[in-house]
Amino acid sequence: MIALSPLRTHANLSTIVRTAGCLGLTEVIATGNAKINPKIARDGADNVNLTSRRTLLPALKKLKADGYQLVGLEQTTNSVPLGDFQFPHKTVLVVGSEREGLNQDTLDVLDHVVEIPVWGLPYSYNVATATSICLHTYCEQYPTG
């Protein structure tokens, strides 16, 4: 499952929904103006349940109470390189906005924070690209779901 802070572009959300569909995920929680472009999302638009929430924090707290581990994708002083991280099986990947990342209130409820190392410039990946890399890594660790 994926939970997203408000994203700046519908293209990024649409790409994330498409990736989720490709990898067999069925749930995406989005905040803000959560519209997808079906030409970008392709079959993901039909096979992924996109739930829109006004704010992210209440949804995250409920998921945590339901036994999910909240794994944030963010560059922090305590984040773990993605390649060194073993995802819990029952995971929600929490992704911040393109410019702001995850706010402190969201970071405070997370169980883990991972980052994807970069070796050049810019210092971070596009949000849809980074989300895709993380989801693929999770699916490699749990290939049968």
TrEMBL record:
Q: Which organism is it from?
A: Rubritalea profundi
User: What taxonomic ancestry is recorded?
Assistant: Bacteria, Pseudomonadati, Verrucomicrobiota, Verrucomicrobiia, Verrucomicrobiales
Keyword Electron transport in annotation: no
The name on file for this protein is: RNA methyltransferase
Please give one Pfam family short name: SpoU_methylase
What keywords tag this UniProt record?
Answer: Methyltransferase, Transferase
**Presence of keyword Glycoprotein:** no
Please list the GO terms describing molecular function.
RNA binding; tRNA (guanine) methyltransferase activity
Instruction: Tell me where in this chain the tRNA/rRNA methyltransferase SpoU type domain is found.
Output: 2-136
Q: What is one process in the GO biological process aspect for this record?
A: tRNA methylation
